[in-house]
Specification:
Keywords: ATP-binding, Nucleotide-binding, Transport. This protein has about 220 residues and is an alpha/beta fold. It has helices at about 45-50, 75-85, 100-110, 115-125, 140-155, 170-190, 200, and strands spanning about 1-15, 15-30, 35-40, 60-65, 65-70, 85-90, 160-165, 190-195, 205-210, 215. It has a single domain (about 30-45, about 80-215), classed as Rossmann fold. Helix content is about 35%, strand content about 30%. A hairpin with a 2-residue loop joins strand 9 and strand 10 (about 215). Helix 3 (about 100-110) runs parallel beside helix 5 (about 140-155) and helix 4 (about 115-125) packs antiparallel against helix 5. The chain is globular. Bound molecules: adenosine-5'-triphosphate. Adenosine-5'-triphosphate binds near residues 13, 20, 42, 43 and 44.
Amino acid sequence: MLELCDIEKSYIGGTGRVPVLRGVSLRVGPGETVALTGESGSGKSTLLHLCAGLDLPDAGALCLQGRDISQTDDSTRARLRRGTVGLVFQQFNLIPSLDVAANLAFQARLAGRHDPAWQATLAVRLGLDGLLDRYPEQLSGGQQQRVAIGRTLAAKPALILADEPTGNLDEETGDAVLELMLALVAETGAGLLMVTHSPRLAARLGRRAHLKGGRLD
Ligand SMILES: Nc1ncnc2c1ncn2[C@@H]1O[C@H](COP(=O)(O)OP(=O)(O)OP(=O)(O)O)[C@@H](O)[C@H]1O
């Protein structure tokens, strides 16, 4: 469902073009979970943003559900992203003026896939069913990230892209949240590409892709 072939990406810096990705190829199929690791500045977030269609590569093909998005315009990429991809970031990015139930429903409604029964199942599985009328500021960090994960899964994405999803949580809470996320991702059959600095967390996923010198090991 996600296929990258020879992706290249540079940024223009004070000293000219700085190559970050120098020919990255990667495939994430349904049900596959892949940890994207690499030193700070190695290009993990850059790669994840390209996969989400938030930015364009300089060269190479990037296929989502068989469609090459590397040459498409912003609105086409936004439509394809809404239909296919779920994003989970370190910052929970919940909508402060909406309660938990409305936050959970938000992306699914945008994607035209609101399914109240699935949302209710997710709320129970994520331990949020007693918190549905609370607002984000009334939740702990771990609870907020569980809402963010539920909001993503509620839209039934085929591919989930996660950037350090437990990076803002203490180790014990982060481990529990990751465990829940992995269990739910496995049940939905989605593919998962997750950036992490932690070899310990990377080991919980099915496969590891390590960025070094602009390429994947
Ligand atoms: N918009 C930008 N303009 C210029 N340079 C950028 C831009 N975004 C990222 N970079 C540079 O590209 C390189 C890769 O950055 P990126 O954020 O992808 O790395 P990362 O592996 O995610 O790092 P970290 O683990 O610290 O979050 C870095 O050298 C960074 O300074």
